[in-house]
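Discussion board: Methods & Data

I've been asked by a reviewer to show the raw model output for two of the constructs in my manuscript, not just the figures. I'm not sure how much to include, so I'm pasting the format here to get opinions. Each protein appears as its amino acid sequence followed by a line of discrete structure tokens. Is this the kind of thing reviewers expect to see in a supplement, or should I convert it first? Here is construct A:
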Amino acid sequence: MGSLILAVRFLTVVPVPGRELLGVSALGRAAWWFPVVGLLLGIGLDGTLAALQALFPPLLASALLVTAWKAVTGGIHLDGLADVLDGLAGRDPAQRLAIMRDSRVGVFGAAGLVLFLLLVVAAVADLPDPVRGRLLILAPMVGRAAPLLVGGWLPPGRGSARPSSSVSPDGRALSGRSGASRSASRWWARGARQSRPWPGPR
């Protein structure tokens, strides 16, 4: 249960009571729960949308749902997306990594985030009900499992990759990171700092 509590606190801002798993390999063991947390989030999103559609027009209901979605998850993946988009402006791998390490958001990142959120709202509003419901449940689950796989498969983006907060489900740190996997690593690492304002009892 400690692993599940850690996974929920790591991936959302939901103040779950209880004692989370501690230790160097704690996040690695909790990673097995990431898709489960995504599935629960997706089920919640589907139910929330149904309630919102009963009260508001489709477009407004979709906008409110996406707002709630990003608020519950702390918007942690949006930061990684902005980093990757800003990195596209780099002339070579070294410059792209330097841009991605910069905490400031550039034009590519800002424009990309706005367009991305508009696309999500439009998709939620316009997709047929059966398809929309399945995608709302599936997307958070896949999204929380994908960074673990990406971080383990891709080679390092830097010559001397240092251990990061990304871990594999067996508890090992994923040190191999290229552009995409580096973004995934930062996605998780920043989530640990941004999405857990209430740490709960230890």
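Construct B, same format:
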Amino acid sequence: MHCGVLLVGAAWGTGALTIVDDFVAGGPEAGGVGCGGRRTLARRRQWRALTNPPDPEPVPATDPADVVVRFLHALAAFDVDGALDLVAEDLVYSNVSLPTLYGRARFERIARPWLRPGRMGFNVHLNHVATEGHVVLTDRIDELAYGRFAARFWVYGRFVVGDDGKIAVWRDSFDWLDVTIANLRGLAGLVSPGLNRRMPTD
């Protein structure tokens, strides 16, 4: 006796879900009828999603604000190597009204000999950090120190962080009048520390 099995499938429905009839192997206990001692196929109805869910929003490999904060803190800790690891090879570093530096190598030639204990110290207090896409804005107080002398002044910074997590643009702006007052207060602080501006605490 020859037995044959015909597999038939049907699908219908709307939207993201569609009813699909398929067939699974089964014996009499599954509703099938034996044929020559073989197991037959029993129909099973189930729901299947025929449309793919939307792709999740892309998540940046590195948070731009975190890169900038780590960069500034590395400079404050005299960790020049750590800071250099966070800037792009073609870095553009600009202090508004001062000459612009191009390239990580030029930035290193300035930072490495000056940012070290016993030479020049740098400290930073972040008042606010805002991010939009790859752009990070900082409202902060910077401190430049030479021995007992310390000048503390307001700085606005604009950073652009690339997809690779490296700072490509660093642009600082400040008020020359405020910097002048900071230097005068710093000189007065050599006579009486209470005359100098206080560095905000985190």
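Answer (T.O., handling editor elsewhere):
This is acceptable in a supplement if you add a one-line summary per construct. For B, something like: The domain at 64-195 is CATH 3.10.450.50 (Nuclear Transport Factor 2; Chain: A,).
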